[in-house]
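Re: Re: token formats

Sure, here are both.
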Amino acid sequence: MNYIDYPHLTVWIGCGASILPAGDSNAFDDYLSSLEWGSDGGLSEKYKFLENNLSDFESDGLFDSIAAVKWLDGSKVGRDSHIVFWYVRGQPGLICDKEFAIKNVDVAYWKAPGKRFMFGATFVEGKFKLSFDDFLIYSGADKISALA
């Protein structure tokens, strides 16, 4: 079963989320494999990240998506209009509007525990231009890191 086939995500597709083809998913996996990784399993120190906790954007139980998007706009993904939720090689991902995506990171990865990656995309001339260099890392708990 593909992650995007879970009912909580098929609703998103019915409401306008786009599907990242598995071939593009494989290309992103190849991109990640090409990066410099440290012996601890993390990325090399040459990559600089902006870090935050998703809970820092909550106030009185409400998520402040304006503040979250403003934070994202200070990173490389800020130049993109959409965020791609990537799951694993060989499976499709989901492309969502940036504001919707940042509000729903935890839901997107509900059935996909552990460290997860996202990247930017922009709709240009009828198709998505994928921006692998504009990526984010979600810890699977609360921490989100955006490539600066």
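Second one below.
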Amino acid sequence: MVRMFVLINVILVTLPLLEVLAGDDDEGETEMCTCIALGIKEDVKQCPNADSVTVVVDLKMNLQQSDNEDEADCVKLDGSIEATQEIKDSHEIRIGANLITENGMEPVFSCMADVCSSMKDEDAPWYPILKYFETTSCPIEAKVYDVEGLKMELGCIDGILTPEFCGEYLIEIAITKGLDTVMCILMGAEIFEVEKPCEECPEKQRKRK
């Protein structure tokens, strides 16, 4: 009987201590979230079958993530763009994004516009580059344009950082004049899921449960 009384007292004394210890462990755990992230390949490549190229692009890309949830991530560009001939009226710019699948390329987005008439369109994807070079009208001079630390915000892609868009993509940017391609570059990107501490994953990029 005495032993039973002692055992009960030990349990009563130990249980609160175990609860405190368990609580300390919970407080020390880091909450993890599934985050939808963007990855960008550093190298910008020339299209393999582009003929009549007069604009040569030599750029490196670096993805920079913002610590402020109210600010968009951006891509920083460094390198050069060399135009060996003027770009003027009748030149068109085309951007296309293709999902890489087991069966080949699946087009998911494309847009096209006249280079000269869209130069002042602030919503155009290429506007930050023209603004950086302080180019607002045609013709675009034939010369080497040095690029150092040019930042292009990626706020426009927030809507596709979702699980259904996960995969590898090949992005093609081309400038054409009639049937001739005067510039054509390829960029690689990937949208993927990654486990991160919730404090490092912006609310807008968290996978919903």
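Residues 1-30 form one domain. Helices lie at 2-28, 127-132.
- S.
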